[in-house]
Amino acid sequence: MSPNSPSYKKPIRKAIFPVAGLGTRFLPATKAMPKEMLPINDRPLIQHVFEEAREAGIEEFFFVTGRHKEMLEEHFDFQPELEATLQSRGKNDMLAKVRDSEIPAGKLFLTRQPKPLGLGHAIWCAAKLIGNEPFAVLLPDDLVLAEQGCLTQMVNLYNEQGGNVIAVRDVPKEDTKKYGILDIESDDGSCVKIKGLVEKPEPDIAPSTLSIIGRYILQPDVFKHLSNFETGAGGEIQLTDAMAKLIGTQPFHGLRFNGNHFDCGGRTGFIEANIAFSLCDKEISDSVQKIIQNYAN
Ligand code: UTP
Prior knowledge:
Bound molecules: uridine 5'-triphosphate
CATH class: Alpha Beta
Distance between the termini: 60 Å
CATH superfamily: Spore Coat Polysaccharide Biosynthesis Protein SpsA, Chain A
Number of helices: 11
Radius of gyration: 20 Å
């Protein structure tokens, strides 16, 4: 990078939520209902990631949707009959929860991905809406239970380093073939300087065991690479391949975030997340604890 390179530090105001996948691992639950509407404790996956984005200062929310996904936009809309009923019954706590799940006027944007051609393609579908500014991507499949939201932690690192920041975690060596894996230049234990990315490498050729999770802060230059529509692992247009092309031209770091990560895209991770989030909910944690103990015996 030359001394005249741009700082790549514009504020992160926009976030993309790719929600056009088929959710086949949850069939038949996801035959008519979007996977992203499956609940973890009292709110759907999509609301968890929306709240994480809002906490991190995101102002505009971009959903990449597909067929049969209308329920997602309904969820964040004003529900006058429901609110009036809750108000007349004096259910103020519940009313506050419902209102907290609304996205204000002018802040929710929708675009469609006609066919689920891969995560990279889904992100490309939002290119015109995002324009020439950096943005966040949050996959509702990935939840992080943490005192400070994962995206907030990433924005803090971005404010120091600029460029691109992805959330990373260590995985067992035999699992590298399930994830995007980092090739590491340097590692201070929390911030990792990245020199390469490989999508789903076999364990014997994986450059490390640090894997990407579904949280990204990216510069808009990634759209140029996505617009080649090159297919990668699994015959899909991979975001990892397009991101890899930015490395060396602008800052690119991984953050070992604080918090527990849950892969809610599969059934066991989803169940584990439900247990963990319920145990953190004062209203029900004691009862859940008892249920777990009963089953453990
Ligand atoms: P996944 O690959 O985990 O979701 O993508 P999926 O394809 O819906 O699930 P399975 O494997 O069939 O069970 C992670 C996120 O990216 C979105 C999905 O909706 C999910 O939120 N996605 C994936 C898209 O929007 N478009 C795609 O082409 C692929």
